[in-house]
Amino acid sequence: MARLTVSGFVCAATVMIGALVSTVPARADSVGCQKTIATQLRKFNKVYLKANIKCLKNENAGTIPGPCPDSVALLKIQGKTDAINAAIAAKCTPADLAALNFRTDCVYEANSAGKEAMCAALPVLSGPDIDPTLLAECLECWKGAELREYLAILYASHALGLCAGTTSAQSTECSDLDCTTPLPDQRDLTGGDGDCQHGIGNAGFKYLFKREKLLEKCALAGGTQASCLGDLEIQVKLDKVEQQKITKIKRKCGNRAPDPSPPFCCRTGQGNQCTAAITRDDCVMNLMGTVQEDKTCELGSCEPVQGGNKKLTWWAFCPESDTCPGTPLSTLDDLIACVDTSADAIADELLCLQFRGNNGLDWPCPAPE
């Protein structure tokens, strides 16, 4: 009988273990998968908003024609999205996704139309299993529609450009805005108005991003929407984020108040001589005049608007509302409160898409509009 040496035993054991390992599938890690999905899709939200905000700033400045996102912004978003999808596919298995209660279709909202119907029609399965890459693309489609809606709220004077010509449910780019009558003037904002609008955009982006990150951390620790929002420590942190947003908007906007169609004067002669113009484009292109903001043409002369604060082209009623026309907006504080409610509603939509525990009851999606 041949003797088995120590080295021979080690070699034989190694071969046996290797054979066993080769027949055992990679161990599922639903916790790690959920964390990866949350982390990577937060990166998607960040690059999507930042690329669009940079584009809108350039469009206001006249360095690009618009509408946004332009090819530069789309390329930036797509490059990051490819890396995000690869990271999710590397970490998540079909078994993980099934254990996390992700849907086997992309119908995250019933009776959808426009962009949301396009998202709902996306495939998620590869054979009988949920495919990680297809799921990531599905969630990014829904998130992109919600984020574009949020941008259209923040950048009211570019709502139609952002939403492919309509803010209704038929939009092929945005989730529909609830209340959009009257529609603000659609135009580029420059000077102090442009600075104010960009301040609202940046502050709104940071508020949404930080709120989502705080609640994601709580959700990953096992919290539900109710328990996380009821956590006193989280409430303190959310209050801090809120104050940062208020400070930034007020610093950029001064005493401006929202107005869907602020007054202007079309200066067409010497001194303050003016001609009545229907729109700013009419003034510049047809009357060969110069637009003067916060003034009106009175008896042939451009005169400052008497009383009240300077105006910013924005919504007259908060677009994110359960009933229309929505909350009336007449002061900068009203505008800030509207950004709050809009961001909170969008954050709820974003979080419910990626935390599907307890069949979606732990982080419920808002009721379809």
How would you describe what is shown here?
There is one protein chain. With 369 residues, the protein is mainly alpha-helical. The chain has two domains: 30-255 and 332-360, no CATH class; 264-304, no CATH class. It has twelve helices and eight strands. The strands form four sheets. The protein has a two-stranded antiparallel sheet. Strand 6 (295-298) and strand 7 (301-304) form a beta hairpin. Helix 2 (30-61) packs antiparallel against helix 3 (71-91), helix 2 (30-61) runs parallel beside helix 6 (132-154) and helix 5 runs antiparallel to helix 6. It is elongated. The termini are far apart.
How would you describe this structure in keywords?
369 residues; mainly alpha; 2 domains; two-stranded antiparallel ribbon; two-stranded parallel sheet; 8 strands; disordered N terminus
User: Mind describing the biggest β-sheet?
Assistant: 2 strands, antiparallel
Number of helices: 12
**What does the radius of gyration come to?**
26 Å
Which outline best applies?
Answer: elongated
What is the strand arrangement across the widest sheet?
1-2
Instruction: Provide the β-strand percentage band.
Output: 5-15%
Low-confidence stretches: 1-27
Quick recap:
The chain is mainly α and 369 residues long.
Helix and strand arrangement:
Layout: H1 6-23, H2 30-61, H3 71-91, H4 94-99, H5 114-120, E1 125-126, E2 129-130, H6 132-154, H7 159-162, H8 191-220, H9 225-229, H10 232-253, E3 257-259, E4 264-267, H11 280-286, E5 290-293, E6 295-298, E7 301-304, E8 311-313, H12 332-354
Parallel strand pairs: 3-8
Antiparallel strand pairs: 1-2, 4-5, 6-7
